[in-house]
Amino acid sequence: MAWRAALRSKAVIPALLSCSSHGRLCASPTFITQRNNSTSPKIKVDYDQTTGVAVMHMQSPPVNSLSLDFLTELCISLEKLEMDKGCRGLIITSNQPKVFSAGLDILEMYGKSPEHCGEFWKVVQEMWLKLYGSNMVTIAAINGSSPAGGCLLSLTCDYRIMADNPLYSIGLNETQLGIVAPFWFKETMVNTVGHRNTEVALQLGLLYKPAEALKIGLVDQLVPEDQVFSVATQTMTKWLTIPEHARQITKSMMRNPTIDKLRTNREADIQNFVSFITKESIQKSLRMYMEMLKQRKA
Ligand SMILES: CCCCC/C=C\C/C=C\CCC/C=C/C(=O)SCCNC(=O)CCNC(=O)[C@H](O)C(C)(C)COP(=O)(O)OP(=O)(O)OC[C@H]1O[C@@H](n2cnc3c(N)ncnc32)[C@H](O)[C@@H]1OP(=O)(O)O
């Protein structure tokens, strides 16, 4: 698709990157904001101009796995919203039953060429840079399970509201797949729940039930499932009463050290990922994990 090619082209990526933390000041003309509601196959964006709040509904069956196409679309949607001066808040939620997001699409990392893996990782980085550094108030309305990359997506937001359903879980469970959360996943978690909680959670690849997640601060609030979205909307209204420049500067101050670390090491991080994920032993672990998922289903 043209937009996917555009996003990946060398000419466009720097423009996108340069806007991830100060989007309103350095808007690239490449993606002039579309102010009306837009729909797309994997993500539906509803933007209410009267409130200045956009809602991103992830709708990629069966489990909103973060594939290359999904992430590319997510980045483009974010870019458009970020460049719109009127858009001040973003709620991210899922239209899939029981799942917020199953995390990175394992099939993008299994049996793929190093070039493909590198391209995939670049867009994973891009998603994180854009969301973690967003000028908007971002709220995750977590209405289902949210493992690994799904948890990361939630952690990039400013506030997390999760459905109080013990069938759901959330956490960075990478080690259970035989893989390792990279330093920026780790730091995003440390910045949220502290060093010790992260150390235990990452080594054991823990997936927390909502009540446990609340206890360690991995989520900020639990609400009955049917209220996740309405509470997210109310919370957004509250956050939007804070003077914007003061809130944005504060957010940057808290997050920029971590963001800068990845921004200055992007290429090395891609090389690290590619050499790690294409190892035979790691590929074997991914295959076994996928087989386990299928057996669990049977
Ligand atoms: C020096 C060393 C440095 C190393 C560091 C360098 C680099 C770092 C290296 C690697 C970092 C990688 C980071 C990876 C992050 C990730 O996000 S990996 C993905 C982890 N995700 C999971 O573990 C979740 C797995 N899924 C589930 O647990 C469940 O599917 C569920 C989300 C709880 C939903 O359950 P349910 O509703 O019962 O659905 P099913 O299990 O039946 O699934 C439906 C189909 O979807 C397929 N699927 C599920 N998850 C994924 C996925 N993440 N990717 C692709 N496909 C997925 C599942 O297999 C089913 O498929 P079929 O219908 O059977 O075909």
UniProtKB/TrEMBL annotation:
<keyword id="KW-0007">Acetylation</keyword>
<dbReference type="InterPro" id="IPR029045">
    <property type="entry name" value="ClpP/crotonase-like_dom_sf"/>
</dbReference>
<comment type="similarity">
    <text>Belongs to the enoyl-CoA hydratase/isomerase family.</text>
</comment>
<dbReference type="InterPro" id="IPR018376">
    <property type="entry name" value="Enoyl-CoA_hyd/isom_CS"/>
</dbReference>
<comment type="function">
    <text>Key enzyme of fatty acid beta-oxidation. Able to isomerize both 3-cis (3Z) and 3-trans (3E) double bonds into the 2-trans (2E) form in a range of enoyl-CoA species, with a preference for (3Z)-enoyl-CoAs over (3E)-enoyl-CoAs. The catalytic efficiency of this enzyme is not affected by the fatty acyl chain length.</text>
</comment>
<dbReference type="Pfam" id="PF00378">
    <property type="entry name" value="ECH_1"/>
</dbReference>
<dbReference type="GO" id="GO:0005759">
    <property type="term" value="C:mitochondrial matrix"/>
</dbReference>
<keyword id="KW-0276">Fatty acid metabolism</keyword>
<comment type="pathway">
    <text>Lipid metabolism; fatty acid beta-oxidation.</text>
</comment>
<keyword id="KW-0443">Lipid metabolism</keyword>
<keyword id="KW-0809">Transit peptide</keyword>
<dbReference type="InterPro" id="IPR001753">
    <property type="entry name" value="Enoyl-CoA_hydra/iso"/>
</dbReference>
<comment type="subunit">
    <text>Homotrimer.</text>
</comment>
<dbReference type="GO" id="GO:0006635">
    <property type="term" value="P:fatty acid beta-oxidation"/>
</dbReference>
<keyword id="KW-0413">Isomerase</keyword>
<keyword id="KW-0496">Mitochondrion</keyword>
<dbReference type="GO" id="GO:0004165">
    <property type="term" value="F:delta(3)-delta(2)-enoyl-CoA isomerase activity"/>
</dbReference>
<protein>
    <recommendedName>
        <fullName>Enoyl-CoA delta isomerase 1, mitochondrial</fullName>
        <ecNumber>5.3.3.8</ecNumber>
    </recommendedName>
</protein>
